[in-house]
Amino acid sequence: MKPLCVDLFCGLGGWTEGFLAEGYECVGVDNDPRFATGYEALGGHFVLADVRDLDGRDFRGARCIVASPPCARFSIANVGWGINPSRPDGKWTRTGQFRLRTKQRDPEAGMVLVREAFRICQEAARPFLIENVGGAIQAISAEYGPPRARHRPWYLWGNFPGFIAPIMTKGTKHDWNGKHMFSGRSSVEVAKIPLPLARAVARGFL
Q1: What's the rounded Cα separation, in Å, for the pair 3 and 61?
Q2: pLDDT of 4-45, one tens digit each?
Q3: Which residues 6+ apart lie within 8 Å of 104 measured at CB?
Q4: Contact present, 21 and 80 (Cβ < 8 Å)
Q5: Gap between the Cα atoms of 100 and 98, Å rounded
Q6: 15-to-68, 105, 135, 186, 198 alpha-carbon distances in Å
Q7: Which residues are CB-contacts of 168 (< 8 A; sequence separation ≥ 6)?
Q8: pTM of the model as a whole
Q9: Which residues partner with 185 through β-bridges?
Q10: Are strands 149-151 and 154-158 parallel, antiparallel or unpaired?
Q11: Which residue pairs from 165-169 have beta carbons closer than 8 angstroms and sit at least 24 positions apart in sequence?
């Protein structure tokens, strides 16, 4: 029987892609139905649900739980960027006159779903990993302690076993294929966990 990984806030399936490659069965939970088709195409089982309605005790048969709660309310990328009204192409800029993005940084709002992730993991009483961005460190650490590990821009909390970090030669502004993380990519694509990191973590849980 394959070990089971529960992927909360699964989105595009970054964690799941790595766990499937290492021989796991994966169940992904997200409240956005647009992710369902792509997630199941990877080979995972998609559950459309709000994590606030979940009972972690239902996951006690899992090998592990991974979670990447939405980071928009923590991200420093939400501060100081705007659309320059003088540019007809509407491109983002830090120069000239601009208005702030609609989504403002609000760590307390971001903590709502982080707390739900920790609640579910604690109820499940299984090894777990919760990932978020550097802008979340202060808020999450105030309630749950400092991150246990960091790999480039990904900060990791939980009781997960140690793992051998993958070699990713590019800087933090690039993904593992060397593509600039903010070059024509949606926020969902930028937030996707890179495959080498997901596979390394998956091996650690085996």
Answers
A1: 9
A2: 999 999 999 999 999 999 999 999 999 999 999 999 999 999
A3: 78, 79
A4: no
A5: 7
A6: 9, 25, 21, 18, 5
A7: 151, 152, 176, 194, 196, 197
A8: 0.80
A9: none
A10: antiparallel
A11: 165/197, 165/200, 166/196, 166/197, 166/199, 166/200, 167/196, 168/194, 168/196, 168/197
